[in-house]
Amino acid sequence: MSVMSVRLADDVTQQLEDLAKAVGRTKSFLIGQAIQAYLEQEAWQIQEVNRGLAEADAGDFVPDAEMDAFFAKYGA
Question: Which of 3, 40, 53, 56 has the fewest CB atoms inside 10 Å of its own CB, making it the most exposed?
Fold first, then answer.
């Protein structure tokens, strides 16, 4: 496990301290959880973008008529 230093705005630090007290966890634990959640979200988003690009490169598109019907259904 490694140690890092980060600079946080005073209001963010206060919110973090308040949350840590409220849930009975350390600030370090909460920061670690937040970073892990962020990394998982970003990895998922990158994977989905890459999957969409691969589908587009393969020519896997919805037919125009199907898209027109979808938009017509919602009044667009």
Answer: 3
Would the CA dihedral through 47, 51, 52, 54 be positive or negative? positive
* pLDDT given at position 22: 98
Q: What is the pLDDT of residues 12-65, one digit of tens each?
A: 999 999 999 999 999 999 999 999 999 999 999 999 999 999 999 999 988 999
In a domain, 35, yes or no: yes
Q: What total number of domains does the chain contain?
A: 1
Which range of residues forms the domain containing residue 66?
Answer: 10-73
Scored b (16 or more CB within 10 A) or e, 10-22 reads eeeeeebeeebee
